[in-house]
Design a protein that fits this description.
plasmid, six-stranded antiparallel β-sheet, 34 strands, single chain, ten-stranded mixed β-sheet, pPIWI-RE RNaseH domain-containing protein, globular, alpha+beta
């Protein structure tokens, strides 16, 4: 285990993040062919574009080239554009024969026919003649330069993966486990797949354990670091929707990983990879390195009960009956121990995160997480802060069971009393008269499934609600759609038709057009059966436990609907202020900025659209209205509304219109995308408007998602932290949000929030100093940590909030993976618990900013959920801004599909792009 520093710190975080040094990369060889290669590459691109026929500015699939190059060489290789010419980089020499064959066969696969053979032969000959030389290592990306193709980072990840592939992982009840290195840089436990129990048809599903090496967000320390994470990926039993195909031979040094392309319902292997691998497999000297892919994607290539030579990795959306997820925490601790004791280059190189003194989360003397619904006596004050006079809550119900359940929850939370009759069609007061509840049977089927449009449903709902709506009344509906939880579809077409006619989404938009927010109630699942499938009666004790669990889940979900009804109209109680404990509660506006690029949908049989993808941009602003015992005020902004409004009318205005914001009218500068330019302009307009449209002027702290916003604002990148904008920036708005404002009006700071563990590293616990001065390792921690220098004498405004999931808090039954890994488990149907974390990087924009207090406030607003009893993944302002987007009736139409997303960063169209950015 990592040895903590002998400092005054009481606790230090343990994290699967490891710094690297330039010497760790080893020797890098460059083959730079003669000048004609540029003309040949351009000709190949033109022929590929003509052959593919998409009408887009496409490039040949260089990821496929790198795949077969790495398989042939048995190590890392990269084909890239550098300093005005193409070059081949590799971590070990590649013979002239191998270079010639790989490039020739790959070019022929990219452009079939005589032209492909001619270009391939010429390219291959140039590469074969190129002399090896030492590669020039480029400097790290500088401020203002959004370079996402920095190859030293990719090679550093590969080097650590090589170290892990050489290790054997001991297990308690079998042979050691080894992970094989794949050409995509991941590690896969080939031959150690984890089976589930056979289903009713006798099919056995398998999980493939995989390890991923990522690049860490270095933050203010600006030292390159790597992260290690592990997942278990379902192996497909058919080719539908497969994202990646792995192919391995026993004597093969690398596993060939090929992405699939084509529509989800008709996947095919990446053609250049397949064609090149088949040709190279015919060469005796390479037959072990590059195995041939199968001629056809036949289901016979996938065995029913045990994986064969082909591993088809299913996308995340595929269900895993009888299989849990995750390795469990014990596996990550073994990873940590193996790297510290057996990987000399990386041992004891974890960055130092020390506990922040005086801030304990969750509950201690400095702050507590308030749970439960808003207390009855605090509801009037919360509604006052939200600007709500009277809240009308119509309960649009279909089944008696739901009606009874909602009635009981309202009686418990809003105080009408146990003898409340809840007369149908009569508005009755609750919560001291501030809430009116009316039960309305949806006899017209305004919420039901079917082909009825949103406009038709709106007419019916307007007639139903008309007798109860007044000018001073805000409407928040509780809705039930008539839905059969056991519905089964005979075909994919039937399922798609049912989803298109789902009544929830058009009725939700119809209510939004009536200025009403809405929450949809969960219907009861089928009753717990009295007998097994074989006809044997269940054990009564077991059945009683199942019945109680079913009812508890229904009651909990119903109670949560009432909480969401209040938070949906912007009503909060004292819980956010109380969570600050002894921390000062400043009268700041906390503004969350959410930007999302929409997915580009394609119509089968038609070429891909050339229209730029639209975006969604939403902002929420919240501040305390008084002291720590007072509620908070919440306002929101969207480009559709064009002004700041209280949270409820801003949300309904967004949900009543099209979610997409067209970006084609914007003009990008330099290397910006249209989406980045549009997002920067929208946010800048919102921040300018906040000076006059928010209820009270006050300093502001901004919260942005680093994973999506770093490609909009250059000042959020690691390379730019703590620096001034570089000279020649086209627009101040592209440096940081609010940067174009006068210096005295800029925000105090911007907090970059990162929740992706591939950029943070997996927490494994903490080291704690005992009373006698010694250190001991702890299994869990919920502390807030701050990044420090190696000697612990200086801290950075970078904080890490570690979280232990609810499964651990549930007790021993939820602690699967505490003392064993999934490799050693006899039961594969449990989910393995593991730590998660959120990282906050504070970027000051005002000399008056208190970075430590701002970072602590971000942690408090993450730890204390606005409605839930558990920790959120992001601070509340950012959480609410995201929720405005994700609760839109047609959010699903614009979001990235799990089936459409690649299993890894395996883009087949370009060698430069490593991520999808705005």
């Amino acid at each position: 285990m990592s040895r903590p520093l002998d400092s005054v710190a009481r606790k230090q975080a343990r994290l699967l993040q490891f710094r690297t040094a330039p010497a760790d990369l080893g020797e890098v060889i460059a083959y730079r062919p003669d000048a004609p290669v540029m003309d040949l590459a351009m000709e190949l691109s033109r022929e590929y574009k003509r052959n593919v026929g998409t009408g887009l500015d496409v490039q040949p699939p260089y990821r496929a080239l790198e795949c077969v190059l790495r398989a042939a060489a048995g190590t890392w290789a990269r084909w890239q554009w550098n300093d005005g010419c193409y070059e081949l980089l590799c971590a070990a020499p590649i013979s002239a024969e191998d270079r010639r064959d790989v490039f020739r066969y790959w070019a022929e696969a990219v452009v079939p026919g005589p032209d492909g053979r001619r270009i391939g032969e010429q390219l291959a000959e140039l590469l074969a003649r190129a002399e090896p030389r030492s590669a020039d290592r480029p400097p790290p990306p500088s401020a203002g330069k959004r370079s996402r193709g920095w190859w030293p980072g990719e090679l550093a990840r590969w080097r650590l993966a090589e170290e892990l592939a050489a290790l054997e992982w001991p297990r308690n009840d079998g042979a050691p486990v080894r992970f094989a290195l794949c050409t995509d840089g991941r590690l896969a436990a080939i031959g150690h797949e984890l089976p589930a129990e056979p289903d009713r048809k006798g099919t056995v599903r398998h999980l493939l354990p995989r390890i991923t090496i990522g690049t860490a967000a270095s933050g203010h320390s600006r030292r390159h670091a790597l992260t290690v994470n592990a997942t278990t990926t379902l192996l497909a039993t058919s080719w539908k929707g497969v994202a990646t195909v792995l192919l391995a031979n026993p004597d093969q040094p690398l596993v060939v990983a090929a992405a699939t392309d084509g529509p989800p319902w008709k996947r095919r292997l990446n053609v250049p990879v397949v064609a090149a691998s088949r040709r190279l497999a015919a060469l005796p000297r390479l037959s072990a390195n590059v195995p041939p892919f199968p001629e056809h994607l036949a289901d016979g290539a996938l065995a029913d009960t045990a994986p064969g030579p082909v591993w088809a990795v299913a996308p995340a959306s595929v269900r895993t009956p009888g299989l849990g997820r995750g390795h469990g925490m014990e596996f990550f601790r073994r990873l940590e121990q193996a790297i510290d004791t057996r990987c000399e280059k990386y041992s004891h190189r974890s960055p130092v995160f020390i506990e922040v003194p005086g801030i304990k989360v969750p509950p201690t003397e400095s702050g507590s997480r308030v749970s439960g619904p808003i207390p009855l006596e605090r509801i009037p004050t919360a509604l006052d802060a939200a600007g709500v006079g009277t809240l009308l809550v119509p309960v649009l119900w279909s089944t008696d069971e739901v009606r009874a359940r909602v009635k009981a929850a309202i009686a418990a939370q809003w105080g009408p009393g146990e003898d409340w009759k809840a007369v149908e069609g009569v508005a009755e007061p609750a919560a001291g008269g501030r809430i009116e509840v009316v039960f309305l049977h949806d006899k017209a089927g305004a919420l039901g499934h079917g082909p009825r449009t949103s406009a038709e449903r709106e007419r019916d709902l307007a007639q139903i609600l008309a007798p109860y709506i007044r000018e001073d009344t805000l409407v928040a509906a509780i809705c039930e759609t008539d839905w059969d939880p056991e519905r089964w579809y005979l075909s994919v077409e039937a399922r798609e038709k049912a989803e298109a006619e789902d009544g929830k989404w058009p009725s939700k938009q119809a209510l939004a057009r009536l200025a009403a927010t809405s929450q949809y109630i969960k219907q009861a699942p089928p009753p717990v059966p009295t007998h097994t499938r074989e006809g044997k009666p269940y054990n009564e004790k077991y059945r009683a436990k199942k019945v109680a669990s079913r009812q508890s889940g229904l009651d909990s979900s119903t109670a949560n609907v009432l909480r969401e009804i209040l938070s949906g109209v912007g009503a909060t109680d004292h819980r956010l202020g109380a969570a600050f404990g002894k921390l000062p509660l400043e009268n700041w506006w906390h503004i969350g900025i959410h930007v999302r690029r929409h997915a580009q949908r394609r119509t089968p049989g038609k070429r891909r659209t050339t229209e730029p993808a639209p975006i969604t941009a939403t902002l929420t602003a919240m501040r305390p209205t008084g002291g720590k015992d007072d509620p908070w005020q919440i306002w929101a902004y969207s480009p559709q509304a064009g002004r700041w409004q209280p949270h409820s009318p801003a949300t309904t205005a967004l949900h009543a219109t099209d979610l997409a914001w067209d970006v084609s009218g914007y003009r990008p500068a330099a290397d910006e995308t249209l989406q980045a330019r549009a997002a920067a302009d929208i946010v800048e307009q919102a921040l300018i408007a906040s000076r006059t449209q928010l209820p009270a002027p006050a300093p502001a702290v901004l919260y942005v998602d680093g994973d999506t916003a770093e490609y909009i604002w250059v000042g959020l990148t690691d390379e730019a932290l703590g620096q001034d904008p570089p000279p020649g920036m086209p627009r101040p708005a592209s440096w940081l949000p609010g940067h174009s404002l006068p210096r005295t009006q800029r925000p105090l700071a911007t907090v970059r929030v990162i929740g992706d563990l591939e950029r943070i590293g997996r927490p494994t616990g903490a080291h704690m100093r005992t009373s006698d001065g010694t250190w001991r390792a702890t299994d869990t921690t919920n502390s807030l940590f701050q990044l420090a220098t190696d000697d612990g004498t200086l801290t950075y405004p970078d904080l890490l909030l570690v979280n232990v999931p609810r499964t651990w808090a549930a007790g021993p039954s939820g602690r699967f993976g505490k003392d064993e890994t999934r490799f050693e488990s006899s039961s594969q149907n449990k989910n393995g618990y593991a730590h998660t974390a959120t990282r906050f990087t504070v970027i000051t924009q005002s000399p008056d900013a208190d970075c430590d207090l701002i970072g602590a406030a971000a942690a408090v607003l993450t730890n204390q959920g606005i409605t839930s009893d558990v920790r959120q993944s992001t601070p509340t302002p950012l959480h609410l801004a995201r929720r405005m987007d994700s609760t839109h009736p047609y959010y699903r139409r614009t979001a990235e599909s799990a089936e459409d997303a690649p299993d890894a960063a395996e883009d087949g169209n370009t060698a430069q792009a490593e991520t999808t950015s705005l």
